[in-house]
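Justification of resources, computational component.

The compute hours requested in this renewal are based largely on the per-chain cost of generating structure records like the one below. Each record pairs the submitted sequence with a full structure-token output. That output is archived, and it is also reused by downstream analysis tasks.
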Amino acid sequence: MAGTDRSQSSLAGGPPLILCRPQLGENVGAAARAMLNCGLTELRLVAPRDGWPNERARAAAAGADAVLEGARLFATLGDAVADLTHLFAATARPRDHAAPVIIPRAAGLELRALVARGARPGLLVGPEREGLTNEELGLADTVVTARLNPAFSSLNLAQAVLLLGYEWLEAGEQPPAPADEAAPKAELVAFLARLEAELDACARDAGAVQHSEVDPTLRGLFQRARPTSRELRTLHGVVSNLLRRRS
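The structure output for this chain reads:
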């Protein structure tokens, strides 16, 4: 195979790549090939349309079998990112989103810095036809958009993965930065669910309008703040103390 040298040590590891609702097996295989080109080996699949495993994916992977064999299947995007502390979502249409928007080169540098600090970031790419929904983008801490022809900016899965993976590879190792790391997504989602439930209960007791109107504002606030596990435990304590005072 052109460009393949089995005598060389293969790069491995890097942040996980999440393909959300991919459609064609061939596209998943081509994305796996692009991943291995850049030394990315952890693939997560969320509800692939044509099922998994997929023989067409293996054929299109052109030798990147190790990536496909290690792929993990998830029913929901929330499950797929639950252990991650920072999520970079690739989209050609940033829409109205609270997360910062950066180019792939900046994403590669940030990814390296996060990994050097011991964080667990991930890369998210949406389905071929319509891309990520607003709800899916709502889980992202950072949106990644490439500078492309504004009249023709759509990329297929493999192109998007190669663009992100290449910038990760080019960024190289970055020195660790002294900073507390954000809590895993599962912890943040659990706290927000509790906070929303208690706000709803307070609104019902007071006969007021439920808090759902401000829910996006609350979520955006906590996404931008990126609280640590310790900070979330403190916030849980605050909510518990308030509940005790009310009762």
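DSSP finds ten helices and seven strands in the chain. The radius of gyration is 20 Å.
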